[in-house]
Design goal:
Largest sheet: 2 strands, antiparallel
Shape: globular
Distance between the termini: 18 Å
Keywords: Signal
CATH architecture: Orthogonal Bundle
Number of domains: 1
Structural class: mainly alpha
Protein name: Muramidase
Radius of gyration: 16 Å
InterPro entries: Lysozyme-like_dom_sf
Length: 237
């Protein structure tokens, strides 16, 4: 969930739009133009409505190259995802979206933001509490990861588990489902605004935002919510 610092995080920070492992992964180019969104995630503040989000199939196609070739030796074993592993990610997103009601596009955007879907990505540590964030969604003390499997296959059940932990939450921390629900308490009205607020909470903790605040302020990755908005509208980075 990416409220992560230390040598690993510093090594992975991208020069323009920062995400936990941006700057060392490379996806497809896209004609969509990125924007730096600020404010409370509302349309009035200039954030895109969910009607501006691309379909899941379009987002999947745009990010497929990243899912297939985005692993880097600095943040994982360096072994690229196999076709079966990529398919397991897609299947896991579908099953968790159905089980939790969380929009499948939101799950995909979070996976790309956190790890570009590299199933062998290293876990990270959140500051202060030393919370472990493993797997492709860097979940809160999740139980599933394939960081040590090398060139061996990452089992589909582990990939599904990573997506479950990040979406439905774990025994020790919230996932996307709980953060979207919590976003209503912070002024989230529309689906899109709830998602953008939820991403602030997911990235930097449940006490990192106040109702009506600027989502680009006070977070571990200040651009996190803006990054998700860009990804959902088809920007690939």
């Amino acid at each position: 969930m990416a409220y992560t610092f230390g040598l690993l995080a510093l090594a992975l920070a991208g020069p323009v739009i920062a995400a936990p492992v941006d700057g060392v992964f490379f996806g497809n180019s896209t004609t969509a133009v990125s924007s730096d969104f600020t404010g409370d995630g509302s349309e009035a503040a200039g954030w895109p409505a969910d009607s501006a989000w691309l379909s899941f199939d379009d987002l999947w196609s745009l990010n497929l190259n990243s899912l297939e070739t985005g692993c880097n030796a600095e943040t994982s074993t360096g072994q690229q995802n196999s076709p079966d592993e990529v398919q397991a990610i897609k299947d896991g997103i579908a099953s968790e979206s159905k089980a939790t009601g969380v929009d499948d596009r939101f799950i995909l955007a979070t996976i790309i933001q956190e790890s570009h879907g590299c199933v062998r990505v290293q876990g990270t540590l959140s500051p202060g509490d030393a919370v472990k964030n493993p797997g492709i969604m860097q979940s809160h003390e999740g139980e599933f990861n394939c960081a040590e499997v090398g060139d061996s296959p990452c089992p589909a059940e582990k990939i599904t588990g990573m997506i479950h932990d990040g979406t439905a939450g774990t025994a020790k921390g919230r996932g996307l489902q709980q953060e979207v629900e919590a976003a209503e308490e912070f002024g989230g009205v529309t689906l899109a605004q709830k998602v953008y607020i939820a991403m602030r909470l997911y990235n930097s903790g449940d006490f990192s935002y106040e109702t009506g605040g600027d989502l680009s302020v006070g977070g571990a990755t200040s651009s996190y919510s803006s990054d998700i908005a860009n990804r959902l509208t088809g920007v690939v980075f």
